[in-house]
Amino acid sequence: MSPLKNIIYNCRQATFLIEKKQLQKLGFRETIELRIHLAGCSICILYNQQSRIIHEMVKQLFLDSMKTSGTRLDDDFKQELQERIDAELNKK
Amino acid sequence: MATENQLLDPRHWVKAHADYLYGYALPRLNDEEQAKDLVQETFLAALERKDKFEGKSSERTWLTAILKNKIIDVYRKKSSGLKMADVKEAEEEQQDFFDADNGHWNKAHYPQPFGIEDHDPLTGKEFNQILQKCLQKLPALWMAVFTMKHIDDAATDIICNDLKVTQANFWVIIHRAKLNLRACLQRNWI
């Protein structure tokens, strides 16, 4: 099989390029290969859409978890931490 | 002459930075106890080397850098040596996604529409919960790569260096992690 034909039918390789493309600009050859594949593969078109949505959602999820009030330490823990630091400082 | 360097004020660290550092660590570790431990370790390590603080960055930036290194240590430990069994398992999970010979999707694993492709996905709270659950199923090394790339948008070569993976392996991991994540969403959502 020629290399080009290889990618036309190879969804594993196409999904690999779809993932790479989200994080980095593809090379010229990779871009062409992916475009040709997607022109003829509706399953990977759907994969491509979903992959992008998941990418955005994961980013948003991480952002949210950093902002929410759930990420506050409890006071007891802080109190202990403070005492520990004070003790260290007083040692010196 | 004294420059306008920032000074450290360890007695105020807890009040000024503890919540911030915890909020930094938690999404990266997804483990409350471990995040707490690392906040504590960060303060203690910072005390030990407070003479080395040069005042070039703010106190918070300096503490965060210490914490970040500790998080990377955790990633490394989790994904080293014997614990790679989780990677093997995750790889087995996806081995029938594609035909072994021609790389075509196997019918049983065709992606199916989620039904949220056209809507604003960010409103789907229930979907988010499933996403979180599916993320937790990823092997530790994959999760570490994925987290560093998605939260910090860290440069690929930095991630590779920190986690001791090759560039080629980095892309394989990104691909595999996403394949499993997507399949997990499909299994649990539709």
For the termini of chain B, the CA-CA separation is 68 Å
Apparent shape of chain B = elongated
Helical residues, percent of chain A: over 70%
Number of H/I helices of chain A = 5
Seen as an oligomer or otherwise, the chain set is heterodimer
Average residue pLDDT of chain A: 86
> What is the number of independent domains of chain B?
2
> What's the tally of helices of chain B?
8
Class based on secondary structure composition and strand pairing of chain A: mainly alpha
Q: Specify the biggest β-sheet of chain A.
A: none
Question: Into which percent range does the helicity of residues of chain B fall?
Answer: 55-70%
Q: How much of the residues of chain B is beta strand, in percent?
A: under 5%
The end-to-end distance of chain A, rounded to whole angstroms, is 73 Å
SSE order of chain A: HHHHH
Q: Please name the fourth-level CATH homologous superfamily of the largest domain in chain B.
A: Winged helix-like DNA-binding domain superfamily/Winged helix DNA-binding domain
Q: Give the overall silhouette of chain A.
A: elongated
Kindly identify the CATH topology of the largest domain in chain B: Arc Repressor Mutant, subunit A
Please count the beta strands of chain A (DSSP E, at least 2 residues each).
0
Q: Compute the average pLDDT of chain B.
A: 86
Strand content of chain A: under 5%
